[in-house]
Amino acid sequence: MDFLAGFTALQIAVALAAALGASFVRGLTGFGMAILLVPVLALALPPVAAVVLGNGLSLLIGLTELPRLVRESERSAWTISALVVLATPLGLAALVATGADMARLVIALIACSAFAAILLLRRSGAVPGRLVTGIVGIVSGLMTGYAGMPGPPVVPYYAGRALPRVTIKASMLLIFTIAAAAGLVAAGWMGLLRADLALFALLLLPVILVGNRLGLMVSGQISDPVWRTAVGVVLGAAALGALARLY
Predict the structure, then answer these.
(1) Distance separating alpha carbons of residues 161 and 227, to the nearest angstrom
(2) What is the DSSP letter of 164?
(3) Burial readout 86-105 (b: 16 or more C-beta within 10 A, e: otherwise)
(4) Number of independent structural domains in the chain
(5) Is pLDDT above 80 for 112?
(6) Of 9, 103, 110, 148, which residue is the least packed, with the fewest Cβ within 10 Å?
(7) pTM of the model
(8) What is the pLDDT, as a whole number, of residue 146?
């Protein structure tokens, strides 16, 4: 455990608690792990480290579900994922060039944007046009690099449509898994992927697996309207929490 020497007891405790709570929400709603996890980690760690650690955790848990996500997701998820991969390095470069206080403000605003977007009226299940899909992919990639949060444009793209819950969750999680991989590759290319962060993510893997499993169990017991309400509540809570942390 020598690699933990670079972290304080408080930082480790915050990471454990945030990982458990955020992974539970992920299992329940199909998203929310990065939206909830990164702002909390950014209080205890430098913003760049928080984003890298968040991406590491998202990738690890996504890999454990990858066959199911590929099987159940909508084809649009692959288009969005490709654009995310292209745009992620630009977002990470912007994060490195930004001061810590400004980065925390932008991360909070990103969390708020997800809640605002989900308030839009529910649309049909048809796939939006290429322009909308393209914008969602590019913005999601920029947010992945800058804040470790690909979700704000992706969640309303899927959850705001009349699709089966299984398809919504699988599509979002497939994108988030690929986005996390893109974020880590970009971080490694820029020399930001520290060995201690990678090992810390591995240490937290059992915690996020437990939290995710508990969330899946609860999700299987609730109706679709209740699930959609939970999506809105989670986004709203993340937005309020992110703003509160700025003061």
Answers:
(1) 14
(2) -
(3) ebbbebbeebeebeeeebbe
(4) 1
(5) no
(6) 9
(7) 0.81
(8) 85
